[in-house]
Design goal:
5-stranded mixed beta sheet; 11 helices; 370 residues; homodimer
């Protein structure tokens, strides 16, 4: 086996942490000695051992003189609020001979310092093996750290002619059960789901992951005038503190007090005479709350605002084989006059789910280079 | 080999006539004697020999006592304006023992009479072998004969959010070169291409098949007020009689005379105070002109009228991975209030062309059962 194969194995191990390491990245480690894998590890859960430490602790024989493969740069001791001892020190202490990594850690407290520390201690370090794959795997983490906002993924379920509901607002069901299962699986991979108040009023969703496995994400509602009914289904969760409502209403508002009393978080933003909540402010707030990824599920006005503000990294269209004609459009005015200005997607992937097409891709001129 | 295999071979032969037999169906024939194929034939071109005759003529040994496989019922002598001698008489004359067919001919002059004639002459006839496949192969012919109108196929090139052009009408190019090649290939399989006047004014298309092979189809333009410019690119064809313009302008109009002088066909329809040309009248006129299939290429108003009037059999969406936001929508008001009324597609097929999705299907509650 060569470097690429070992790194593939490390990436595979890393992926086992999907949905549980956030806001930490997914990391996997393979330790090789005399051409044999002698230990493996991965980061299982936020707050738990790092992959490198787990692998070293798991090794059945001494790791002295071995090569350690890891998809992310080993951490240093400089991170504030650090929960675990730094991996690079442990690697030095264990006299590992060589470290192969896929990407540097974008976290400025680590970025390049981990590699530097290892080299200062005479450990050979190779970087860049399977870098694109490693960046893609941790796209949420990279975006969160570099842009100080969550990774934003828009999920749109629509007809062929781009309608997300009839003119009367009915959207149950445009896409079918198998698409819905896929959506629930997607939800389980995100820290939070975000919808606008119209979606709550029209569909009264639970925003849970009942058709899949994994933890329920945070529920974020954009509700300028705090119109959400107190008996909305979204409040029927046993973890009310994971429901956040952003509004223009002042903190002194009586309804806010009612909601706070139930444990719901309500965040008052200044209106600045804008008709819409400032999405940059909302995203900054979420990032500060350690929410590193958001799945935006509608409705049309919300999608339009996010796209217009270039606040999205990925977008998924679930397209059902039907035409509705008039009705609520998935995306409204983006202020575009020419096709040159159209929002084009890159790294497009098309999947067929029953008779529905799932078209997904990344924002062109996006922030994460691959 | 069994009946199904021989019929598959007959269907394969039939398909060789694609694009050249219209308004006749595609027909293939295989003659089998003592378990061996002794002759094959197919209908090559409108006016040419029928498949059965070609096969019999091609046979190297006597066809007496043989079994003849044909995807369509052999014709009788009852068809008006018949160009060739009836196949069923020839089959009897050649003392063929058994005939296996996939479908009856929907043409009322033949329908069941061919089979009856053969049985009267003591030939064993089996029907229904690969009937669905045979009906699909000749879907244009079946629709044309049964409904006395052309098979109507809507072709829509749009963005993910259902826009066929920017708000300024620009549509070059939403889909890419490979999708365009596919469109030209599709054109070559249709008797006519139809567009609205807005598409002519905006895009000035040639409506030819330059990126593919095959004959140029008829060009049909819906032009209520005869606004088409005399120097439109669509007039640069060496066969001006294959350009038809439907209009509300009376036949006495000076511009009609100009166009007729160039060899263009202009058809004046009564307005009946309707804003749109009566599509049923247009389709009847085309059927009478032996146009058995039409590819409708836009624009949005034209698509909407055809769908609203339930005048379509098949629809193909070429979806490019971009969002335009405001702009011209592919499909406008269909008068639908609830999702139950939405136009759903059946027999959906999804193809990936580069990074574009081609989603196509048939109108549910369509006219041809499969």
């Amino acid at each position: 086996m060569d470097d690429v194969s070992y790194m593939q194995r490390a990436l595979m191990l890393a992926e086992k942490g999907k949905g549980t390491t956030s806001p930490n990245p997914m990391v996997g480690t393979v330790i090789v000695k005399n051409g044999k894998i002698i230990a493996e590890g991965f980061h299982q859960k936020y707050g738990d051992k790092h992959a490198e430490i787990m692998a070293i602790d798991n090794a059945s024989t001494s790791v002295e003189g071995a090569t350690l493969y890891c998809n992310l740069e080993p951490c240093t001791g400089d991170i504030p609020e650090k929960k675990t001892p730094p991996c690079s020190q442990r690697i030095v202490k264990e006299k590992i001979k060589k470290v192969v990594i896929a990407t540097l850690d974008p976290n400025p407290y680590v970025n390049g310092k981990g590699v530097e520390f290892l080299r200062q201690h005479h450990i050979q370090v190779d970087t860049g093996v399977l870098q694109p794959e490693a960046t893609l795997l941790n796209e949420k983490y990279f975006t969160y750290i570099r842009l100080e906002r969550p990774f934003i993924h828009l999920k749109i379920a629509q007809s062929l002619d781009g309608r997300i509901a009839t003119s009367k607002g009915k959207s149950k069901w445009i896409t079918n059960e198998n698409a819905l299962k896929k959506v629930h699986q997607l939800r389980s991979e995100y820290d939070a789901i975000l919808v606008g108040i119209n979606t709550v009023l029209q569909d009264n969703p639970s925003l849970d992951v009942r058709l899949s496995q994994g933890k329920n994400p945070f529920r974020i509602i954009l509700d300028n005038n705090l119109m959400i009914p107190l008996d909305a289904r979204i409040f029927n969760h046993s973890d009310p503190e994971k429901t956040l409502i952003f509004t223009f209403k002042p903190a002194t508002d009586v309804k806010i007090k009612d909601l706070s009393g139930k444990g719901i978080q309500v965040v008052s933003l200044l209106s600045n005479d804008q008709p819409y909540l400032n999405l940059n402010e909302v995203m900054s707030f979420l990032a500060k709350s350690k929410i590193s990824s958001v799945l935006v599920e509608g409705g049309g006005e919300v999608f339009t605002s996010f796209i217009k503000n270039r606040l999205f990294d990925k977008i998924s269209f679930f397209i059902a084989p039907m035409m509705i004609g008039s009705g609520i459009q998935s995306i409204g005015d983006l202020g575009i006059d020419s096709l040159d200005e159209a929002f084009r997607l890159k790294n497009v992937r098309i999947e067929i789910i029953d008779q529905q097409a799932l078209v997904e891709g990344y924002r062109d001129n996006g922030n994460i280079e691959r």
